[in-house]
Amino acid sequence: MKPGQSSIYREVELLLEFSVRITERLPKSLPWRTIGERLISNIMDVLDFVCLAFQAEEGRKRLEVIDCIIVRMTSVKMAYRQMLNLKQISSGQYADFLVKINSIGTQVGAWRNKQRKIAADGRPNRNSL
Question: How confident is the model at residue 5 (pLDDT cuts 50, 70, 90)?
């Protein structure tokens, strides 16, 4: 399967579209501009890491890339929490974000658990998610 055909890639794309619309409405002051840019950059990195994970050998190498996805998604969650806490997004927008991030997190978590098992067993299978 190509990365762009995977459900995780598509869901991250949808999160990117959602986030672009959110960041367009942020104040233009430097702190908010920086948070918006970092948010979009981190989501773009996740798309890159999903592609890299599909190309990586199963097991430890793929697990390392998946861990990078988790780190970036943690930063994305923090940015959204700050936007909510500082009243730059509504609770409804935050709830929509949580639905998207939880779906992605569930898939990444399952992928990570599978790769941990493969790494422990030492048996690669190149193309599975």
Answer: confident
The pLDDT score that the predictor gives to residue 64 is 95
DSSP state of 5: G
- Taking alpha carbons only, the member of 76, 55, 70, 80 closest to residue 108 is 70
Hey, what are 30's tokens?
């430097």
Identify the band that residue 108 occupies on the pLDDT scale cut at 50, 70 and 90. very high
| Residue 74 identity | T
Phi-psi region of 87 (alpha: psi -120 to 50; beta: other; left: phi over 0): left
Q: What is the pLDDT of residues 36-51, one digit of tens each?
A: 999 999 999 999 999 9
With contact defined as beta carbons under 8 Å apart, do 73 and 46 qualify? yes
* Whether 42 contacts 26, CB under 8 Å: no
Q: Which amino acid appears at position 67 of this protein?
A: D
- What six digits make up the tokens of 62? 């793929």
